[in-house]
Design goal:
- With about 325 residues, the protein is mainly α.
- It has one domain (about 5-315).
- The protein is built from twelve helices and six strands.
- It has helices at about 5-30, 50-70, 75-100, 100-115, 140-155, 160-180, 185-205, 215-230, 235-240, 240-255, 280-285, 290-315, and strands at about 35, 45-50, 125, 130-135, 265, 270.
- The chain has a two-stranded antiparallel sheet.
- A hairpin with a 2-residue loop joins strand 5 and strand 6.
- Helix 1 packs antiparallel against helix 2, helix 3 packs antiparallel against helix 4 (about 100-115) and helix 6 (about 160-180) packs parallel to helix 8.
- The protein is globular.
Length: about 325
Amino acid sequence: MANPLALVIGFAVSLATTFVFVPYLIPILKAKGIVGRDLNKPDKPVVAEMGGIPVVVGFFAGMSVIVAFDGVTDINLLNVSLSAILGAAFVGMMDDIFNLRQRQKAFLPFVLALPFATAVDTHVVIPHIAEFDLGYLMIPVAAFALTCAANAANMLEGFNGLGAGLGIIMTSTLVVLCVVHDRLDGLYLLVPILGGLVAFLWFNWYPAKIFPGDTLMLFTGATIAAAGLLSSLDFQTGFIFIPLIAEFFLKLRGGFSGENYSTRSANGYLEYHGKIESLTHLIMKHSKNGEKAIVYKLWMLEVAFCTFVILVDVLV
């Protein structure tokens, strides 16, 4: 049984660690040339990149405090979970530095997630409909799910605060579902990453002082997926990823070569002229929006999916 006080302290430690570390890291990243241009701004300012590092550090600080105060009953399961999500963060970091190919970002997290996949519950429950025991088939399925989640979270990004905000919404939803179903193992991962993401959003919100980079987005997606599997919320976790899955198929249309950015910025509005390869393109092409409005609309889309899955679980 997760200790509520330990969770609160862990959240606070993760939030505080990330909040202190980000402004310390920004000038260091800029000095080392680890930067990107904010392509949705008219003057395209240079912004520090690889902001996932402080969140990963904050996460592990918060998670360590939770474990120390609470005493986890299955420490081996937690260890293989941490191995998988840290592996995803490491792949993201390599991509930020070396610009990995898409197939490398798919293969490496899959291999690194295999020990975790051998430890998760083999039962998959579709609420109010059916339950399946996948047996040994759960190993490739779980590793594939974690890999897809990591890469999907990385695809819907490119606007100030977008990825971090989506991560906060999805993580908060799974926290609620863990409590509703009394399946609390996932909280050891969800609570500290939530603290880190909330702190990071303060610096990543418009106008961004730091970008998350693939380090944060792969780490966030993998952590959410791992938490969902730990708490046997497989179907619910997959459901809240639907907007990101839609983004995957839109990217697939262009062979994963398309970018989310606008093609023109004028009069405070972002415009896109070209083939639709992102949910952001759909918004920019069919209505006039500033950057913050686009982010709000995509957040609200995710909120709609998350609200639906909570209501179905609680009311049906």
